[in-house]
């Protein structure tokens, strides 16, 4: 339960803030000069803040849209951007790079979405086949009840329909009602459900929806005419039975017939910028994933190449044969090999 | 440790009596410090104003060698600021917890203590002013926590934040007067009345501070070293015996924790390292660290990720 909301004074009169605050009637509102004053304080304890969430509503005065990171996948798009209008999420994944990247564990939501949309429109106009990822620094879908961002993006997507433009909302949330909220399905909006083996979800993705709920939601979105993707990313080889877990996952995707209907599947081994891994280990001393050994190559920590190859080829094989995903729709993380 | 800080001795009196503290005469401390080794509590009486608060807090926290798990609690009087927009008005005798500390009349970043430990009740913004006459004029539209003024808190927090994180810093203020009225009266307050209010509020603040401290201690249980549990001592002995570098200590800590969380104990490996006779221990550091590689059988080589 959020008991304190820090609201930047310039955000007070923005409709977004006026819609969010009544949803938190018990929270005390503290007006702040700038969101950075709270988010970037010295000596913050990320792990503690994550367990005791407060919300910061701010005004972003810098760029919302940035070039996509090399550690992420563009699933075949020529231009790849990510848009950051909210930071941190309500899930507690043991491997999340946000815990190594951000100084604060509090939820941060930007209220000036019109500025964000303007920036996105400009980029969409100048680029060709473009992917704009909307939820890398957060799980906005899971927080739709509070923020309403998904509805806003669905509206924008409907007004900005153009060939090759894709807005991607990635989530680990299995709630279906937010799909209805985004309907009718815009062609340029794609929902990506991030999935892993049921065992991995149970062990490492605390506070997120079950595999069943996520696949149910993905199926429902397909029924409603939305474009859907799955991200088996990162593939985590934890424990002796990791193969069995991924086998079962792919079999379930195939059994439900999702594999043939989806837009794309992204996969790749666990990787994280080496600097973030160090902070992640400090912030999550009990995370088995963070505690594991990795090799650092060009600033990114990940499985050693041999192990990475082994687990990715295993998952690829399962995706094609058990899940029934057509080859040309599978995208593997890894530079020029990204598109198979 | 709980470190209380007050500006005046009258504000500290109850705390000193309650914990039976003695004044510490050590070094060149510029302020009065009360503590007792066995009690794990200290009280700093800094005197009023910015310089006293900064110098007093910084010197005492250095002297006390505070670390994670310790908490800093400012306690004292504040004057209520009444504004048109507040639904909740503060009255003399109220005890509030600071959620925002600002510096009146100057363009300085406010400080926000994290309200994580203890209770998030009776929150207020505390504005530190130079004197009782330089009050902020406007209330803050949209803010639902009331405001009060004092003369030290911002500086005390600024100093304490050099040592401890925002979750370990808190301030409890007893509303002693209405700030606007006090300003009209030439800054005079009824000292006897204020002392009475302080005395009444102090037990409540002690209870809150102890709750905050208990929460801070509980949070320590999830730190890397705490997770080692019964292997902590062995781990430290091995680090010392092999004169491990900072980086290797980290790797070893990670390995032991990982094994422990996976239900395996590294006790035997650590004991075996400690059992190596002195004469068999290699002289150079690198070779000593290699002992760990052998013992732990690193899957991808020792230290490839750091």
Question: Which tags fit this structure?
Answer:
heterodimer, A: 340 residues, alpha/beta, pyruvate-formate lyase- activating enzyme, 8-stranded mixed beta sheet, 5-stranded mixed beta sheet, 18 strands, disordered C terminus, B: 306 residues, Rossmann fold, 9 strands, 39% helix, 19% strand
Proportion of residues in helical segments of chain A? 25-40%
Q: What's the total count of β strands of chain A?
A: 18
Question: Which sequence of strands runs across the widest sheet of chain B?
Answer: 5-8-7-6-9
Helix/strand structural class of chain B: alpha/beta
Please give the number of β-strands of chain B.
9
Query: Strand-and-helix sequence of chain B, N→C?
Result: EHEEEHEEEEHEHHHHHHH
Mean pLDDT of chain A: 91
Number of helices of chain A: 15
Query: What structural category characterises the helix and strand content of chain A?
Result: alpha/beta
């Amino acid at each position: 339960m959020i008991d304190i909301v820090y609201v930047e004074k310039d955000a007070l009169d923005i409709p977004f803030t006026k819609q969010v605050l009544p949803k938190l009637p018990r929270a005390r509102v503290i007006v702040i000069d700038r969101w950075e004053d709270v988010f970037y304080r010295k000596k913050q304890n990320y792990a503690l803040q994550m367990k005791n969430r407060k919300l910061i509503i701010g005004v972003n005065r810098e760029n919302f849209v940035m070039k996509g990171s090399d550690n992420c996948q563009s699933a075949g798009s020529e231009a790849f951007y990510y848009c950051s209008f909210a930071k941190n999420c309500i899930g507690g994944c043991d491997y999340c790079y946000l815990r190594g990247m951000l100084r604060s564990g509090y939820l941060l939501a930007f209220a000036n979405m019109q500025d964000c949309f303007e920036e996105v429109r400009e980029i969409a106009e100048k680029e060709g086949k473009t992917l704009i990822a909307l939820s890398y620094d957060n799980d906005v879908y899971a927080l739709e009840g509070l923020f309403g961002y998904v509805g806003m993006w669905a509206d924008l997507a409907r007004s900005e329909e153009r060939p090759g433009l894709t807005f991607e909302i990635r989530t680990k949330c299995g709630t279906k009602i937010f799909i209805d909220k985004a309907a009718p399905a815009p062609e340029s909006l794609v929902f990506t459900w991030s999935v892993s083996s049921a065992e991995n979800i149970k062990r490492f993705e605390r506070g997120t929806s079950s595999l069943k709920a996520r696949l149910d939601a993905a199926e429902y979105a397909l029924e409603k005419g939305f474009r859907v993707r799955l991200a088996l990313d990162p593939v985590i080889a934890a424990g002796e039975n990791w193969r069995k877990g991924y086998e079962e996952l792919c079999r379930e995707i195939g059994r439900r017939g999702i594999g043939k209907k989806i837009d794309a599947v992204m996969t790749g081994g666990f990787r994280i910028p080496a600097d973030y891994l160090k902070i992640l280990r400090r912030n999550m001393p009990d995370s088995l994933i963070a505690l594991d050994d990795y090799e650092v190559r060009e600033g990114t920590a990940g499985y050693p190449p041999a192990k990475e190859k082994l687990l990715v080829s295993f998952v690829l094989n399962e995706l094609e044969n058990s899940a029934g995903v057509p080859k040309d729709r599978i995208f593997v993380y890894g530079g020029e090999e990204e598109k198979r | 440790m709980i470190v209380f800080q007050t500006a005046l001795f009258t504000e500290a009196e109850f705390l000193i009596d309650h914990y039976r503290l003695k004044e510490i005469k050590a070094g060149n401390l510029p302020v009065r410090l009360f503590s007792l080794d066995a009690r794990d509590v200290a009280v700093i009486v800094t005197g009023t104003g910015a310089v006293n608060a900064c110098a007093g807090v910084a010197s005492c926290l250095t002297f006390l060698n505070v670390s994670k798990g310790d908490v800093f609690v400012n306690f004292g009087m504040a004057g209520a600021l009444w504004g048109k927009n507040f639904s909740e008005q503060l009255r003399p005798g109220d005890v509030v917890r600071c959620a925002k500390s600002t510096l009146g009349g100057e363009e300085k970043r406010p400080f926000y203590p994290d309200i994580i430990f203890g209770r998030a009740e009776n929150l207020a913004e505390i504005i530190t002013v130079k004197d009782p006459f330089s009050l902020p004029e406007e209330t803050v539209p949209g803010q639902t926590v009331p405001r009060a003024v004092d003369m030290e808190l911002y500086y005390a927090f600024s100093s304490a934040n050099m040592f401890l994180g925002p979750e370990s810093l808190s301030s409890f203020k007893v509303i002693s007067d209405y700030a606007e009225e006090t300003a009209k009266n030439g800054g005079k307050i009824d000292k006897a009345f204020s002392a009475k209010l302080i005395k009444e509020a102090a037990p409540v603040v002690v209870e809150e501070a102890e709750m905050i401290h208990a929460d801070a201690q509980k949070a320590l249980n999830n730190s890397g070293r705490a997770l080692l549990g019964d292997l902590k001592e062995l781990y430290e002995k091995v680090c010392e015996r092999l004169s491990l570098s900072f980086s290797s200590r980290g790797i070893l800590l990670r390995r032991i924790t990982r094994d422990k969380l996976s239900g395996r104990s590294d006790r035997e490996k650590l004991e075996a390292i400690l059992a190596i006779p002195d004469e068999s221990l290699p002289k150079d550091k690198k070779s000593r660290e290699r002992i760990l590689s052998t013992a732990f059988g690193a899957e991808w080589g020792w230290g490839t990720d750091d």
